[in-house]
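Dear colleague,

Thank you for sharing your sequence with our group. We've completed the structure prediction you requested, and as agreed, I am returning the results in plain text so they can be pasted directly into your records. Please verify that the sequence below matches your submission; if there's any discrepancy, let me know and we will rerun it promptly.
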Amino acid sequence: MENYFLGSGKRWVFSECPERVSLGFKQDVPELLQKLLFQRKITNKEEAITFLNPTLEALHDPFLMEGMDLAADRIIRAITQKERILVYGDYDVDGVSATSILVQFFESMNAPIEYYIPDRVDEGYGISDAAVDYISSHDFELVITVDCGITARFQVDAIYERYSQKGKTIDIIITDHHQWNEQLMPEALVVLNPHIPTSRYPFKNLCGAGLALKLVQAIGAKLQKPNAYHDYLDLAALATIADIVELNGENRIITKFGIEKIVKNPSIGMQALLKAAGVESLVDSYRVSFALAPRVNAAGRMGDAKRAVSLFTTKDLSEAEKIALLLNESNTKRQEVQDQIFKSAVQVIEKDARYRTEKVLVVHGTGWHHGVIGIVASKLVDRYHKPAIVLSVEEDKAVGSGRSIEGFNLFSAMEAVSNLLVKYGGHEQAGGLTLMAEDIEYFRVRINAYADDLIQQEMLQPTMTIHLPVNGKEVNLRTAKLLSRLEPFGSGNQMPLFCLKGAVILNKKVIGNGKHLKLTLGMEGQPVEGVYFNKGELDKAIVLGDKVDVVFSQEVNVWQNSETLQLKLYDLRLEEAKINRNRFLVKLARQVECLDCDENWLYNGIIDETVSLDDIKVNRDDLVIIYRYITKTEIKAFSLAELFIHARTLEQESKRNINCFKLLTALLVFDELELLSLELQQDGSYKVTWADNARKVNLEDSEILDWLREATEGLSRWKR
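Please find the predicted structure tokens below.
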């Protein structure tokens, strides 16, 4: 609620955009939409038409990727000759989906197919030593990796060597979308990866399942089955969204038509997953990300990721439904374990005062589940908006996962203290590491010393990116319908957020058992409905008629075959002039508390009309009204937000200018005169303890009132 009065929540950052944009359209595409396209680096009408009307035909020729022709020929030979094929995947959504795509495809071709998913805890990411032993002890003739393998030079060499020792041969095809490293790139038959520097492939940001889809597209083209890959678009879309790759180019096409398949013609496994997740009626990128993907991920986090592959490859609906329910159970267990560890981590942070000044949170616990510490790190970043590293201590070692904030490269930070680490890896925003348990505290000191110079204070304040400011005429049902053509939304193609300043609160209603807030906003004369999810408590702060600045998305609400505009609110606060006034009054009250005011600052506030003289004058009548109110309501404690709420109630009841400054100043005077005790708590709230025996007091005995009277009289003389 404090954000509503002080704008103390997320810092609003507006995306760059020219004042006027024209991509060559006439009246059929409003300038608002053209500006959003321009922000997506679309600079002409032809590009805009392609973006707004994606087609599968716009996917690139898979044979533009180096090695694709050889890989397709080798796989066709294996299919034709009934060779033993192994698909080696990863335990996350991307790896599971990519594995499932190839397994289903090979089964459709009646090819002998097996798959291997490493255990997250025992083996970790990539081709493990255990996997080398497994592959080498079986007589596979072709191994295809998906979503991994680009750094597996030594493991691939070991497999080739062991097969040679047996007098047998094996071919290995690596398909991976992770970053290339020349020293670690395996000498396989083929390596398919658009990130290899010599790659001519036009699109670089495919996920592992997207790359598997392109492989099927290539094989299908050679087998005169050019549409074979259509059957797996739903799995590729699931992985593309879950892996948070940018939803532009081919990814946008894959995701759009994949979601369409999920809605209209889901596979048996996807159908069961939709039912278990309770999202059968409405599917979009948001629900795929937050309802479907976590259930698939839970298989690898809490148990066996092969269970998720079984879900997507079974042809028995009843079996699929049983597996989907098991994934539900795993996801529930994951949430429980995750929440327990998160609460423990928060307790550790709240009890240790050093965390308040440290810029990187390093928190550890004994036996914390490896499968969820990455999620816990993400939740800590959301809560504190600081980079967070969560470590699970087992015997003499600590295994950890980290997440970062924008502008701080976590991989570089780990690299800077690498002499303390047994191993580490990752990228700018996320990473994993292992170190000796005895080095945790020193690691905490070292990584914070590294971060001190790089993390500026403003980086620790969360931001909200607003795409465009709008006026009331640009908020309507037609605009909302046009905006839906930008879907699917996700990384690299965010849902457009708009800001309108000076909207008027016309009506308010708490819904969802008090959890959410429904508002009617007046936007340049037109009333518009909006919902502010998980902000029901804000009802206490809002007064009808308030002028507010609001951040929102425009959506189409369908009810009983009727379409209406509905705003989804993302931030809401009093208009800028009121925010500035409130900030000034709070700062002044804190200075009054210390009897130490910057007179020039105070004069400037009056000159700039941030506040008026009447805002800061406290007279006897004000004190009487405030004292009666606080004794009647028996206030025992209040937060800064509640201070504003009490002040607004007093103002309405008394019809006087009683604001947060006057209320807090009055309480300080009452404390000074021993009518009560006012204590500032560590969390910024105030505790009120009433004196046992009320007595009459002389207001002339208050140094605070004397000081304030002198200040305001001086200002009055200056004004004259």
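Summary note from our side: The first strand starts at residue 11 and ends at 14.

Kind regards,
the structure core
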